Amino acid sequence: MYQKSVLRGNSPVSIIGAGIAGAWQALLFAQAGHPVTLYERSDADMTLSTSHWAGGMLAPWCEAETSEPVIGRLGIRSLDLWREHFPDTPFNGSLVVAHARDRADFERFARLTTGHVRLDAQGLRDLEPSLEGRFRDGLFYPDEAHVEPRKVLPELHARIEAAGGTVKFDCHVNAQDIDGIVIDCRGLSARNEQPELRGVKGEMVIVETSEVELSRPVRLIHPRWPLYVIPRGDGRFMLGATSIEAEDTGVSVRSALELLGAAYAVHPAFAEARIVEFGSGLRPAFPDNLPRITAHDDRIAVNGLYRHGFLLAPALAELTLGYVQRGAIDNEVMRCV
Length: 337
Hints:
- By secondary structure, the chain is an alpha/beta fold.
- The chain has two domains: 166 residues, FAD/NAD(P)-binding domain (3-Layer(bba) Sandwich); 136 residues, D-Amino Acid Oxidase, subunit A, domain 2 (D-Amino Acid Oxidase, Chain A, domain 2, 2-Layer Sandwich), CATH 3.30.9.10.
- It contains seven helices and 17 strands.
- The strands form three sheets. An eight-stranded mixed sheet has the order 5-6-4-11-12-13-10-14. It has a seven-stranded mixed sheet with strand order 8-2-1-9-16-15-17.
- A hairpin with a 2-residue loop joins strand 12 and strand 13.
- Helix 1 packs parallel to helix 5 and helix 2 packs across helix 7.
- The longest helix has 18 residues.
- It is globular, with a radius of gyration of 20 Å.
- The two termini are 16 Å apart.
């Protein structure tokens, strides 16, 4: 659906929040010729951003197990944008495994998702030799990918500046004090404008070992503590998967034990791994756990990416740019008030 755009195609654009959502907005607008300024309250390390603690999985087919179809639609479009703008993104696929006692949950996951190939023990060994003898089969999603958030965010910021944009760290701004188009990507900090937002805590552990090698994210299906193990290079792995309805930023002993125990269930060598870091981030979510672009004249809010930030950010930025330049409306995602 289209409406007449109330905005000018080459207007200056200010974006608040330099996490994954705001960074993609800034990149596409700068590349489209808009004068762009990106404001971030944190320093360049982005430690105050939810994106700093993210897994960085680009897995629209796997996410179909628990997500609405719009997540898959936008996620698949985002994969094209990641390929276009970051051709070095590791499109090595995703792997899903389960132990024999969790067979029913494994088969349920297979039924609820598409885009996978079933691997027997030999195929699993050929794909990930470190898992030889650990599982009798697996589901391989060959078109999925993953990124390292703490590497790709600085790359995004650098490309914004290369496209003529400006990135300002350690900068607190108020949208009402900025002229021109303002895109609010503050996550939970935007609750003064969007009070229905809530925080969903995602906890993570980073471990280091030379005894396990993985080329892609591995998801372990388990009824109590499902886990993903994401290779981060140099023998480091991120362990995550918790989604807790709480807004503190600590990591509980229970979660740490479950994450570490699940990693041991993937491969016993993780028992001797060195713990590098514990951490957590608060994902911004609306009650329906779906993303939302809210537009009112020259004020636009992009929020509610929930656990899909790195997967959805490129497609949402493309939708926002389409609205500004052509008045294009995506009825599943956008609201004009």
